[in-house]
Amino acid sequence: MNHIADLPVDLDALRKDFPILAQRVHGDWPLVYLDNAATTQRPRQVIQTLVEVYEKHYANVHRGIHWLSEQSTDLYEEARESVRRLIHAQHLEEIIFTTGATAAINLVARTWGDSCVGAGDEILLTEMEHHSNIVPWFQLAERTGCKVRFLPITDDGRLDLDRLSDYLTSKTRLFAFTAISNVLGTANPVRQLVQAAHDVGALALVDGAQSVPHMATDVQFWDADFVAFSGHKMMGPSGVGVFYGRRDLIAELPPFLGGGSMIHRVTVDGYEPADLPARFEAGTPPIVPALGLKAAIDYLERVGFATIAEHEQRLVSLAHALLEEIDGVRLLGPPPEEKAGIVSFVIDGIHAHDVAQILDRRGIAIRAGHHCAMPLHQRYGVMASNRASFYIYNTAEEVEKLALAIREVKRVFRR
Ligand code: PMP
Questions:
Q1: Model confidence, pTM
Q2: Distance between CA atoms of 205 and 225, rounded to whole angstroms?
Q3: Ligand 1 test: best mutation among 125, 132, 370, most atoms within 8 Å of CB?
């Protein structure tokens, strides 16, 4: 069975760009890396960029008036422009480099949240959020007295849109939701949800950590107010992420972190914050990770987001077909057509950690646990699940190996 033959990408050639994938583990098992929702691997092009920057272009940015600092500042600002184009933001200063999606969401909670939310206001989340998009809002509630609510999900892993109007009300100040569930793979109707938030006068924050790496993104089409995502989930280095905020909303917000770079002027009497984007980039920013992120974006754009999404769709369909045939395996979430490249499952009577451990002995890396989404697991009455998550470099053969290894797990536990 070859579900990838007619894709306009040569996977054998593409995989050669990822030296880490060519390894053999635990004896002679080829590494099968299916933990891409946790973090992805980097191609040589990104790794070489990091080496080249350190060898030729590295200095602090926006500081020195020397040759090297000007070079690194230019490159850093080119990386910002590359992110702007990637997500189709209107203005360059709407792109703020952070250390990741978590930092970006916390930034919104600490700046917009602290200055615009009060007791009696509501923040609406969904039951499928990652802890990164839950805990900062509980913390905001502790500081301000606002209330955090959760839009329920259905048994088959969709947002319960029939109940949206019960939860999204004139009290809601922000609807913060993930574009794609990091457990269920569910692809949410982002534009429709943003529109619904705006209809009641609320703002909308889109957690794009699992969507931006895998499909074309247009924040203007979404009409999103805030968007967060991470570089390491899209072939970039760890330590860099992006906060997108609509210029008119964030230009006057009080800065969150204070320090160098984020000021116009400091005197013994106080300080005057800088304009965007420096206003939210206090201290030395993630310079080299941002340049690595640009290299990753270049790579992804060369492959093409339509190709990436189509390939992952095929792998998910294949995974569903093969795992559904195995007795006692319960797949979480909607059917494959409504999913991105993530498949989570539980196996009757076998703990998720045992499954992952046995698969690991065969070279297959999957995730076991609650995947930083405990409320979601509580909703389905399970403590933990297994998750296989795909990227453009995964093959149909690897999905077949996953299914065979799960059959083996079942045999081991029957004995
Ligand atoms: N949101 C979602 C949906 C995620 O999957 C993750 C990462 N697992 C995050 C937020 C947080 O990303 P990071 O750890 O890179 O800050």
A1: 0.97
A2: 6
A3: 132
